[in-house]
Design a protein that fits this description.
Blueprint: H1 2-9, H2 16-34, H3 37-44, H4 48-55, H5 58-72, H6 75-80, H7 86-101, H8 111-114, H9 125-150, H10 160-179, H11 184-195
Helix pairs in contact: 2-3, 2-5, 7-10, 7-11, 9-10, 10-11
GO molecular function: DNA binding
Keywords: DNA-binding, Transcription, Transcription regulation
Protein name: AcrR family transcriptional regulator
């Protein structure tokens, strides 16, 4: 009986990670509320019974999709933290973020922004979850910039938390614009301007007579 149930629920050779990747794209394109169960199961190649058995309800699936997105699509953010200086950390993050927001093989923008648009029927749980996820990324950047300040890599008086928040505001703003169709080169132009305010920018070493 269990074997028959499994066969009705999902096909042989079912790849849970591949199905989750397809769910990521559906949530990314439609947002949490806009993604129907039919959209999700159709993209994942399974029925509703199997979806609930493998991933839980829609909110559980969404949380797992966001974790999958953070692991795969946001790897560039973790890699940026390994750069040797604060300026290079920020520059690499914002540059690779602009590229990630405009990948031709992915929806434009960012799942953590688009996913929570118009969330209301769940009493704000999804929006709160996404906000917490974004804040976790900001906290990781704050910790890296705090270390830079302790090492003397940032000017005395620099507020690492405020600097990290500034960087995230730029990246999240670019995500909104990317979703609206703003091209990659325009996002990089915004990054060019934003980087001028970051300690360590080449222009900060210039003097005027």
């Amino acid at each position: 009986m269990a074997e028959k149930t499994r066969e009705r629920g999902r096909p042989r050779g079912f790849d849970a990670d591949a199905a989750l990747d397809r769910a990521v794209e559906v949530f990314w394109r439609h947002g949490y509320e806009g993604a129907s169960l039919s959209d999700l199961t159709g993209a994942m190649g399974i029925n509703r019974t199997s979806m609930y058995a493998a991933y839980g309800g829609k909110e559980d699936l969404f949380r797992r999709a966001v974790a999958r997105y953070a692991e795969a699509d946001m790897a560039y953010a973790r890699e940026a933290l390994a750069e040797p200086t604060a300026y290079r950390v920020i520059e690499r993050f914002l540059r690779t973020n602009a590229d990630a927001l405009t990948r031709p093989d992915r929806p434009a923008g960012c799942l953590s922004i688009q996913g929570g648009l118009a969330c209301g029927s769940d009493n704000g749980h999804v929006a709160q979850f996404l906000a917490a996820s974004r804040l976790a990324g900001e906290q990781a950047l704050t910790e890296r910039l705090t270390r830079a300040a302790e090492e003397g890599d940032l000017p005395t008086g620099t507020d690492p938390a405020a600097l990290a928040r500034y960087v995230m505001v730029v990246s999240e703003g670019n995500a909104v614009h990317a979703a609206a169709g703003v091209p990659r080169e325009a996002l990089h132009a915004t990054v060019d301007l934003a980087l001028r305010a970051v300690p360590g920018h080449p222009s900060s070493h210039l003097t005027t007579s």
